[in-house]
Amino acid sequence: MHTQTETAAQIVAAGADYVLTMKANQKNLFQACKQLPWKHIPTQEQVQADHGWRAHRAIKVTTVPAWIEFSGATQIAKIRRTTTRLNPKMPGRMKKTVEIVYVITSAGHREAPADVLAGWVQHYWCIENRLHWVRDVTFEEDRSQIRTGSATRVMATLRSTAISLHRLHDPTINIAAALRHHARHPGKTIMLLTSEKGL
Asked: Which pLDDT belongs to residue 199?
């Protein structure tokens, strides 16, 4: 949504740098990035593992060519992330996902070499994964039978609001435990909505 030249220009004009993800809905920019000679660009790799999951990240970074016009852009990166984790819907089975993203940034190679850029994107992915994991596992969003009209969007907004309210109160909170707590004490839900010290 924010990968727009106007947004990038405002950020650069304010003296800051941006790191923006390009997606298929930005057809021309996305295709231009896909067609860069990635096979000739060196790869930096990172492997991270924890209880029940493993992530392999490969990043390639190149200077933005003159024919790609995007306000303030200096570097483009291609990041391939392969994640293997325990499948919450099939205990004992592993689930493998592969994601390839293209990132454009105004930060130069000195401020944002490949490893720094990979770290920034990884931090963003951690935030995204934290949200998606809770929505998929705790709220069982994928199993939802709500399909009519705008009800799916309304429910997604309500779930995100519930997650945000709990994390504003306590960033380290276990959302599943918090939901059980509020189910047993519905009066505290109103307190959570109306007070910074609801819990």
From this structure: 46
